[in-house]
Amino acid sequence: MRSRGIGPNRICYTAAIKACGKGGRWETALDLFREMRDRDIKPGIVSYNTAISACGQCGQWEKALLLLREMGGDGIAPDVVTYSAAISACEKGGQWNRALELLGEMHRRRLMPNVKSYSAAMSACEKGGRWKEALELLREMRVSGIEPNEYTYNAAVGACFKRSRYKEAMGAIREGQADEIYPIFAFERYSEWDLHGLSFPESCMLLTQALSSAAARSESYESASFWDIAVITGRGSVLRDNVVRFLSERSGPEMKMMEENDGAFLVTVEALRNWAESSRLEDFKRAFQYEEE
What we know:
This is Smr domain-containing protein. This protein has 14 helices and four strands. The protein has helices at about 10-20, 25-40, 45-55, 60-70, 80-90, 95-110, 115-125, 130-145, 150-160, 165-180, 200-215, 240-250, 270-275, 280-285, and strands at about 190-195, 230, 255, 265. It has a four-stranded mixed sheet with strand order 1-2-4-3. Helix 7 (about 115-125) runs antiparallel to helix 8, helix 7 runs parallel beside helix 9 (about 150-160) and helix 11 crosses helix 12.
């Protein structure tokens, strides 16, 4: 463009800043943003939002907040997209307290946070192990009429799980099941419990619920009428091994690895029955503060 005597305009700069953010080149993104000013091209709100997002994608939360504060000098009021990008930057930078401050600032400006704003703030709380704050945000969403999604539930469950607040994590799981975010694993004649797409905390809590429920039926079925439970964790053995180790350390049932599939394991009917008839089941429930509904 410049070789033809045509200078880039604001749209061109904004597109370039966005590309730099996606490529992890936040410094170049900021250089382009400053170059706009040097060329007397006034950044608009989309330019600011894009630059804040570029910094946030690279964990540069301080730079993102600096841009947020500069907007007023250009006479531009931040909008929901602006704050969501800034909150996301704080989340990636591990700044849960600043993420919550920005959420509060949105309310004071009478800007209604959206699901992205809440999800980013809750993810920041999860990383900081702030389970009370995460659950309060989940409650606040419902009061505001904003429907939680898989990301908000993932953060809520993860925050509680990280602090061993298993009872609260199970409460979030059950809310997510009511919202059809999480599956309800039933013990049937042929049971295949698929954990694809679920995090380690979500997987552990869903299996805690499902195994406890299945054990409660141990006296009402005949072994010949039921097949072993197949638990699918996905490709690779990392999640499988971690889940099995975690549950075993808390007195879970005997779990059998599947040699032909490193992304799955079995809970045999016999193992389930033996577990239900032993004291280990009650130890398991106590470890997770588990209560039947």
